[in-house]
């Protein structure tokens, strides 16, 4: 009996535990339910067994229920056992599944916790980033506002085609308003945000380009100030686009370029005037690119002189056309930025046109260039050739009668042995002067050759002191007539007949000394002093001085051709020919004037022997 009761309690306790665990079972619920029903039937079978053992009179008094209790006990126990075993068969595998599920749940939970922590960290970082971005945005907005309000350049921004346009102080002041608010009020009364733009075509152009272009640069329009003064304003615009790629917002930067535009217009007018001048100049003007050394332009006269068309000329190398003699270019060879000389222009047909060339390095349209001006001197060359021919003819025609005079004098001196001494002296003087005239005729041609640079100088040893003495004796009559005495010194001492050899041309040296001494005699006041001082050395120096200072206005051009101080019969050729002679012999000549002492000195230096 005790064991049956104990079994009953154990079965009841097991049933109670399974009922308590029912809510936590999610897998194998059918088997779990069979287990519960099986325990319940076993509990009922145990109860019936207890009842049978207890021999309850109520159950067995009539004997009617005795077999029934036994049958019920047997059926309940058998059914409970079957259900319990079936339930355990169905439910026990789910326990392992539940373990696996629980393990997965644990892993999932761990993953979720890790993801939650990572996401939380990301959210914290995102929140921090957004806070920083918001802070930076506020700072950027503040900076933008400061730059916008204090910018020296006019700025406006707003929606394209909209009425809201904000402008800064510089923009308002540029158009004569005291503040952007004042400008906005005026435009609000007029009902037009573009009322300050003069031309409606410009307004349409601004709106159109703002809608279709991402950036607009260098758009120059006319705007009207509040005082009705018109100004030229340059607009540079940048547009913002929406998510559909359409421009909806603009930023515009405005700069007053009135003075710059007026200056540019003035330059353009000057450029057009210069082009007209160049097109009408009687001088050929070529423009050469210094980097490529090719021609990049020419005026109409240059095209006529060269025979090329503009298209043919552009791109051609300059040396073959502008440097006909093949000489090196002083500009390209680094000798300077200018060049002035005579040269040849090679024409299209291969001819050579003599020109006077002036070349200047400069910038043309921002490019390092050479501007080469060529003056046609073919007519001057023809006249010079004609002059040289005339000189040769004149020299030839003059030589013949002079040679005739010399020959007559020599014949008379040879034939008339009993001739009077005075007459013989006169004939000798005539012969001497005729020979001098013959040399002077030859000298005139030499001086011309020196002028044009074709003289061939062949020096020979000449006694300078002998030349000085000869010239002094020849001009003695002139000195005596003017009451002048010529003092000759060598190294500061009076002339004692010593020699002073120098390499020179006898005729050029005598002519130079004669012209300078004659000039001193004619310039010195009556009764004044004239001196000729020679000094040995290398170079040899010869100084001819006289009383009286050269007038101030004549000093700068003293050695120029035809320069004269108003002397009676003066031609202004004496000092000029002296300078030519000194230069031809490799020497130098200079003027020295002392107003305090009232004296003039001409110093000539020649190479020493």
What oligomeric arrangement do these chains adopt? single chain
Percent range of helical residues: 40-55%
Radius of gyration: 64 Å
Main β-sheet, spatial strand arrangement: 13-12-15-16-18-17
Average pLDDT taken over every residue: 80
Distance from N terminus to C terminus (CA atoms, Å) equals 171 Å
Shape: rod-shaped
The residue ranges in which pLDDT falls below 50 over 5 or more consecutive positions are: 59-65
The main sheet comes to:
6 strands, mixed
Which structural class do the helices and strands define?
A: alpha+beta
Total number of helices? 18
Count the E strands: 18
**Strand proportion:** 15-25%
Note the main attributes of this structure:
single chain; six-stranded mixed β-sheet; 21% strand; alpha+beta; five-stranded antiparallel β-sheet
Structure description:
The longest helix has 85 residues, at 66-150. Residues 59-65 have low confidence and may be disordered. The chain is rod-shaped and about 220 Å long. The chain has 18 helices and 18 strands. Helix 1 (2-20) runs antiparallel to helix 2 (29-54), helix 12 (378-415) packs antiparallel against helix 13 and helix 16 (506-523) packs antiparallel against helix 18. The protein is α+β, with helices and mostly antiparallel strands and 609 residues long. It is 53% helix and 21% strand. A hairpin with a 2-residue loop joins strand 12 (485-490) and strand 13.
